[in-house]
Amino acid sequence: MKQSLEESIITDRMISVLDAKGETISKKQSLSRLISHAKKLMIGSGATVDGDFFHELEQWRAARNECVHAFCKLDDHAYAENSAEIFSEQMMDTAKKGRELVDIVKHLSRKAKAGRL
User: Mean per-residue pLDDT for 70-83?
Assistant: First the structure.
């Protein structure tokens, strides 16, 4: 699933941002903890707020988890007739948003490494 690859890239780049800011981070940190840690470091607050990048990341992370878990439990007999279409649309929307966020996190990583963040 594309979302799993996007999560890996986002996680890697978030670790890179934190590393560039002098933070020592375990590569086994959850994405949720990385988001919270980066927000605290960069903004001073761990709380996500509507409209900010970290809130978007957290929303995407939750949607990605929902897609992955739904995929693992997918059983056409347990869902409505149009469940495959709904699931497919949800997967596409999550993948598109993930791609946007990958680009933003890559940009943040480059800025952090250059000392401009």
Answer: 64
